[in-house]
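Entry type: protein chain
Record version: 2
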Amino acid sequence: MDEYAVDLELDRAHSARMYDWFLGGTTNFPADREAAAAALTAFPVILTTARVNRAFMHRSVRLLAGAGLNQFLDIGTGIPTSPNLHEVAQSVRPAARVVYADHDPIVLAHARALLHSSPQGRTAYVQAEARDPAALLAAPDLRATLDLSRPVALSLNALLHFVPDDEEAYGLVAALKSALAPGSTLAISHVTPEFDPAGIARLTQAYESSGTPGKARTREEIARFFTGWDLLDPGLVPSHAWRPEAADRTTAAESACYAAVARKPAP
């Protein structure tokens, strides 16, 4: 389709393709691999960090689908890496409806992989900017797929550390939260400097050098994103420690992220 004809800027490193490389994917190119190697040199455990972050997404989606949620909104989707969120949700709840949203034309070019829904459910892809939540939530494909008067499971995994301006980051999350019905949930994973300050400083510099600014935040700063919502057990913890399904020897320094899921209370 013509809408997928985009400039992939293969001569420039891109964070989504770097993350794909960290996960062992193949949708990356020399500039991405060079930047990813620099990030790996700066922060040698980043492959574990990426794997643990992805595993948190899988666990949180399985839990929420098992708890009855059947609408999911994933913002900052990134390049598809199976199993994607809809595959996890629909493996538990086949009729689940999933909307992916990302502003990046690189992700758009691979969006077909996100649209293979189960027969009972539905998936959609919206090219939209998280920094403009009103436009994102008004997108026709989102409105045709999700009923915002009913609970939605919102995922903002590994996204907000790429929004370095605090006012903007807290503002966009507040706008998204206010648009969702009671019973909705919010899942966030976010890089923190608390477990390895020097390593995260090197990693942040490596990303900035490749053209992607970011900000690691403290536990207190990340907790602010959940203000007014009820954290599910075990609260805001290192990503590997959020309801692990098996023994895990990962350390907090390797996780390098805090993660949590919270639910919007009834008014």
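Comment: The longest strand covers residues 185-191.
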